[in-house]
C-alpha cells in the first residue's frame, strides 16, 4: 500500500486529495481539503500573480504539506492551471512549491499543465462513477479562469476537448465589477459567455454526448443550493441531477444578489460568494449550448474531478 497525494492549484482555490493505492492499483480516498486562495486575483488585468496571492497560497500549501507528512504520504503530484499559465512571474510560484513539496518527495514541484491535459485529467476523474450506458459523456469543469469541455466515452476515448477562457473569477473581475452587478454588466457577461460557447461548438462534438457532467465549485454549490442543504455535504451533492428549468430560476437570483447576501448561505464558501454570480452566468450559457446540440435537459453533478484523475494517473504509473 502506497499513500499518495494530488494537489490542484487553480485561479480561485487550492485543493488536496490524499489516497492509498494498493499493489493491485485499487484506490481508496483518505481525505479531501479545499482552501480559497484566489491565486489568480488581478492576473487578468496585470499579467502577474500578486504578492498577497502568493502569500495566501504559500500558507495553504504549507498546511497541506503538514497534512501529507502526518498521513505518511511518499509521492505527490501538483498541477497548476489557468492563473499560472497566464502569469509572467510564475517562477516565484514554482520555486515556492519546490521548496515545500520537496519535503515530501525530492524534486517535486508544481507543473503547469496545458488546457488539453487539464481536460483529460478532469474527464478521468469526473466519469469514474458513471455507468457505461450513460456514455458518451461531456464533462464541463468550470474553474476560476477557464472552463474545460471534454467529450469522451466510457473506455476513455476522448472525442474532443477545449479549454475556454471563461471562469467565475475572470467574468467577475473583467465584467461584473459592481456589487450587485448592473443589468448592463450581466448582459455583457452573457454575450461574452455566448462567444466562448460558439468557440466550443466549433471544436468539441457536443452533439455526440448523451450525459452532461458538471464538476468543480460553481456546479457543486449550485447543487447544494438547489437541494436546500443546511451545510455543504459532498456525499449529498455527488451524483445529483440538476434540471435546467429549475436551475435557471436559481441562477437569476444568484446573479442579481449582492455578495454579502450570498455569503449568508452556509453552503456558499465565503471565498466563493463574490464570484458565484459570474459562475452562474457561465452555467446559463453552457445550458444554452447543451440545448442547441442535444435533447438533454439536466446536468449530473460530480464531486470528482482533476484530483481523482491525477491519483488515477499515479496508480497507472505504479502498475
Automatic annotation (TrEMBL):
The record places domain Ppx/GppA phosphatase N-terminal at 23-297
Q: Which EC number(s) are documented for this chain?
A: 3.6.1.40
**Alphabetized SUPFAM superfamilies for the sequence:** Actin-like ATPase domain (SSF53067)
The entry lists its GO molecular-function terms as: guanosine-5'-triphosphate,3'-diphosphate diphosphatase activity
Keyword set, alphabetical order? Hydrolase
Query: Broadest EC class?
Result: hydrolase
Q: Name one Pfam family in it.
A: Ppx-GppA
Name the PANTHER family for this protein: EXOPOLYPHOSPHATASE (PTHR30005), EXOPOLYPHOSPHATASE 2 (PTHR30005:SF13)
Q: What protein am I looking at?
A: Ppx/GppA phosphatase family
Name its species: Corynebacterium camporealensis
Species lineage, top-down?
Bacteria, Bacillati, Actinomycetota, Actinomycetes, Mycobacteriales
Gene from which the chain derives? ppx2
Amino acid at each position: 500500500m502506497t499513500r499518495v497525494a494530488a494537489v490542484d492549484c487553480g485561479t480561485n482555490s487550492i485543493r488536496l486529495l490524499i489516497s492509498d493505492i494498493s499493489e493491485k492499483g485499487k484506490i481508496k480516498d483518505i481525505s479531501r481539503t479545499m482552501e480559497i486562495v484566489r491565486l489568480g486575483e488581478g492576473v487578468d488585468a496585470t499579467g502577474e500573480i500578486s504578492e498577497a496571492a502568493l502569500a495566501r497560497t504559500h500558507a495553504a500549501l504549507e498546511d497541506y504539506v503538514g497534512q501529507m507528512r502526518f498521513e505518511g504520504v511518499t509521492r505527490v503530484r501538483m498541477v497548476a492551471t489557468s492563473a499560472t499559465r497566464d502569469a509572467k512571474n510564475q517562477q516565484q510560484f514554482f520555486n515556492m512549491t519546490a521548496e515545500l513539496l520537496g519535503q515530501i518527495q525530492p524534486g517535486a514541484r508544481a507543473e503547469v499543465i496545458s488546457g488539453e491535459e487539464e481536460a483529460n485529467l478532469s474527464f478521468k476523474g469526473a466519469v469514474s462513477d458513471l455507468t457505461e450506458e450513460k456514455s458518451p459523456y461531456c464533462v464541463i469543469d468550470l474553474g476560476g479562469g477557464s472552463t474545460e469541455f471534454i467529450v469522451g466515452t466510457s473506455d476513455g476515448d476522448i472525442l474532443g476537448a477545449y479549454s475556454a477562457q471563461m471562469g467565475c473569477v475572470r467574468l467577475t473581475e473583467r465584467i461584473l465589477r459592481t456589487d450587485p452587478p448592473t443589468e448592463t454588466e450581466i448582459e455583457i457577461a452573457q454575450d461574452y459567455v455566448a462567444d466562448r460557447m460558439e468557440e466550443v461548438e466549433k471544436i468539441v462534438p457536443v452533439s455526440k454526448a448523451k450525459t452532461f457532467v458538471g464538476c468543480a465549485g460553481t456546479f457543486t454549490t449550485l447543487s447544494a443550493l438547489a437541494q436546500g442543504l443546511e451545510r455543504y455535504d459532498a456525499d449529498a451533492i455527488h451524483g445529483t441531477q440538476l434540471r435546467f428549468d429549475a436551475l435557471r430560476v436559481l441562477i437569476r437570483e444568484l446573479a442579481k444578489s449582492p455578495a454579502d447576501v450570498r455569503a449568508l448561505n452556509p453552503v456558499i464558501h465565503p471565498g466563493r460568494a463574490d464570484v458565484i454570480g459570474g459562475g452562474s452566468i457561465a452555467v446559463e450559457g453552457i445550458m444554452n449550448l447543451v440545448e442547441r446540440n442535444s435533447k438533454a435537459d439536466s446536468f449530473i453533478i460530480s464531486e470528482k474531478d482533476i484530483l481523482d484523475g491525477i491519483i488515477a494517473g499515479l496508480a497507472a504509473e505504479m502498475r
